[in-house]
Write a structure and sequence with these properties.
This protein is mostly helical and 507 residues long. The chain has 3 domains: 104 residues; 216 residues, Hypothetical protein af1432, CATH 1.10.3210; 71 residues, GMP Synthetase, Chain A, domain 3 (2-Layer Sandwich), CATH 3.30.300. Helix content is 66%, strand content 7%. The chain is built from 17 helices and 8 strands. It has a 3-stranded antiparallel sheet with strand order 1-3-2, covered by helices on one side. A 3-stranded mixed sheet has the order 6-7-8, covered by helices on one side. Strands 4-5 form a two-stranded antiparallel sheet. It is elongated. About 6% of the residues have low confidence.
Length: 507
């Protein structure tokens, strides 16, 4: 249809522009055959271009255009009618849906109204029931609530107390079992193979004439030896030479030096000083190597060299016959195992156990080994937590951390276990008697028994003379006297027992 309209537009334009013959011919091309036939019937020749009847062509075109316009209007009317019908259908659907929604909203409103009415009725019934109960019970609502709460509180208190007792008992049982398991496991990991050693150095000789060489002319050899080594030489016993000195390192240097002099046979002041100088260097090298071995055995690799050398002196140091290197190694392994079990700082416990007795090998200063050790560690910038472990491992000051307590426990386990330290039997019996004697001097004591190798004493008192409070004070007093008057390894547990019994026999 658009093409036809374009053609009609071209014809109209051709009529207006008659001078443009080419455009007109193009527009009237479909009518040319009809015009040629008409002229032929009139006897005219078509060999020459005919004169075109422009008015006729225009009328034909206008007629055709009118037909097309009518057709177009019909088509447009049809399309418009279909669109209106479609719109009416859609509006009808929308109206129908609106009706359905309106019906639903109405039903919901009715349901809400019914629910609200029922809630109001239930609330009125509840209030009426409460008023009836209050009237029957002669109590207000608040008073009834408080009575119920008091009853429940009493029942819950009894139930909670019962649960607490059961859980406490269970916790104590499990804690004791777990503690024993942890300690046994720690001791198993820390056990070392060694035996107790004596602290007196003895050199055996086969020829008594060697003693004369050692003494020398007018005693100059033995004086030179004792002056250079700082030890005392005892030649009174036959077949042996005893060396005694408070410093174990000096005693070891003297022992090695004397053995070399006896093998060499040349015992004179100059030779003595020469051999002592050689032995000192060797002993210092050995001690440093032993200190390194000890540190590496427990996993410590960054200690200052002077501290490593001091730890190596433990090789020649004994405490109640227990070698200090073996004790330190055992204690550190126990401490590491305990710290791992309880979740403490393993590195602090490791260093605390390793350095706890470092003050025992400081011989040129006065003071307890705890104070000397703390001073030394501060000098080398050791962390404060480790210093606290050293300062508190004998309970000289209160514990400030779980790591300090673990170092104390590890030291007690290693030092007080059976077989760890050597003691003279007579001294052992004397200590037990002295321990019982201290307890028996207290007023009201009926009997005292020391057992577990002197690590525990139980004191039975007369309940008619000693009260519960006085029993507690008595235990503290016995503890103080034991600490002041006795010397003992590890620790001693003191238990004061006060018991009243009423017994009857039915016949």
């Amino acid at each position: 249809m658009l093409d036809v309209l374009k053609t009609l537009s071209g014809l109209v334009q051709a009529k207006k522009n008659q001078n443009k013959s080419s455009g007109i011919a193009h527009a009237l091309r479909p009518e040319i055959p009809k015009l040629e036939a008409r002229q032929k019937n009139q006897g005219k020749s078509v060999t020459q271009p005919p004169s075109i009847d422009m008015d006729a062509a225009v009328r034909v075109a206008e007629a055709r255009a009118k037909e097309l316009i009518v057709e177009a209007k019909d088509e447009a009317f049809r399309i418009r009618r279909e669109a209106e019908d479609e719109a009416r259908r859609k509006f009808a659907d929308i109206d129908r849906r609106d009706g359905v929604l309106a019906e639903r909203e109405r039903r919901l409103e009715d349901a809400e109204t019914r629910i609200a009415k029922r809630l109001e009725e239930a609330e009125r019934a509840k209030v009426a029931q409460i008023e009836k109960l209050e009237h029957t019970a002669h109590l207000t609502r608040e008073e009834a609530t408080q009575t119920i709460l008091d009853t429940l509180r009493g029942e819950l208190r009894e139930e909670s107390a019962k649960i607490i007792r059961e859980e406490t008992t269970s916790a104590h049982e499990e804690a004791d079992a777990k503690a024993k398991e942890i300690l046994v496991d720690a001791m198993k990991h820390g056990a070392t193979d060694y035996v107790a050693e004596y602290t007196v150095s003895i050199i055996k000789i086969t020829d008594e004439d060697m003693k004369g060489r050692i003494i020398g002319k007018e005693g100059r050899n033995i004086r030179a030896f004792e002056t250079a080594t700082g030890v005392d030489v005892d030649l009174d016993e036959e077949g042996v030479i005893r060396l005694s000195c408070f410093d174990p390192v000096r005693r070891e240097i003297a022992r090695v030096t004397l053995e070399r002099l006896l093998r060499d046979g040349r015992v004179q002041p100059g030779r003595i000083e020469e051999v002592i100088a050689q032995v000192k260097k060797e002993i210092e090298r050995i001690m440093f190597e032993e200190g390194q071995k000890l540190c590496h055995a427990v996993g410590v690799y960054n200690l200052p060299a002077p501290l490593v050398a001091l730890l190596g002196r433990f090789k020649y140091r004994f405490s109640y016959g227990q070698n200090m290197i073996a004790h330190t190694l055992e204690e550190t392994k126990i401490g590491i195992a305990l710290a791992t079990e309880v979740g403490a700082d393993v590195n602090v416990v490791r260093l605390g156990c390793l350095l706890h007795d470092v003050g025992k090998i400081i011989m040129d200063k006065e003071g307890s080994h705890v104070d000397l050790g703390v001073e030394l560690l501060r000098k080398y910038g050791i962390p404060q937590k480790v210093i606290d472990c050293v300062a508190q491992h004998h309970e000289d000051t209160p514990f400030t951390s779980i790591e300090s307590m673990l170092v104390y426990i590890s030291d007690a386990i290693s030092g007080s276990r059976p077989g760890a330290r050597y003691e003279n039997y007579e001294e052992y019996i004397k200590r037990l008697k002295d321990l019982e004697g201290i307890a028996k001097t207290m007023k009201g004591v009926v009997e005292a028994f020391a057992f577990q190798a002197g690590r525990e004493i139980r004191v039975a008192v007369d309940p008619g003379i000693v009260s519960d409070a006085e029993a507690t004070l008595m235990a503290t007093q016995i503890k103080k006297e034991v600490e002041e008057k006795l010397t003992y390894p590890g620790q001693i547990k003191i238990s004061v027992v006060r018991e009243i019994r009423a017994t009857e026999i039915a016949k």
